[in-house]
Design goal:
alpha/beta, binds inosinic acid, binds magnesium ion, 6-stranded mixed beta sheet, 3-stranded antiparallel beta sheet
Length: 178
Amino acid sequence: MNKDIESILFTEAEIKARVKEIGQQITRDFTGKKPVLIGVLKGAFVFLSDLARCIDLDCSIDFLTASSYGKGAETSGKVTIAKDPGDSLEGKSVIIVEDILDSGVTMSFLKKYLSERNPESISVCTLLDKPERRKTDVKADYFGFLCPNEFLVGYGLDYAEKYRNLPYIGILKPEIYK
Ligand code: IMP
Ligand code: MG
């Protein structure tokens, strides 16, 4: 285990099994459709790559970059878009794929932002959900795990760009970010 991690919350095997279940659920729910999976960079890159391989449908993949986090562990409340999905979303079933829903500020902004591109539907799929922290009324249509109010890293999630490559999700020792 990485020395900056207090404890492992979800192991590699637990994540793998849960991602497979979410992929199967999406496959059932979108039968006959060709969803567009839009990963929110950078955090969702690991989850999206595993999830996409568990979805047995013709789907396309795109990314956007949204950021509301500086180097701290709290949201700044202001969301900026640095990279847009390139292709038309008109009439498409869009699934936004996110690493974690925290305050919900980012996801509320993204749903509104993408709805202006006239998709048929927009669904939200997040690996982790911290419902206690929610400041907007956004909900996940698909989520992997509910989590405690701790700062988590690994499997795509970072602190100051570190730890994204850990294969598990762990609680970061508070002395690292305090
Ligand atoms: P929200 O706008 O507060 O919901 O924040 C969502 C974004 O904050 C996520 O996409 C993550 O990038 C980041 N974030 C929230 N909580 C954590 C965490 O515990 N660890 C790492 N990143 C987090
Ligand atoms: Mg993120």
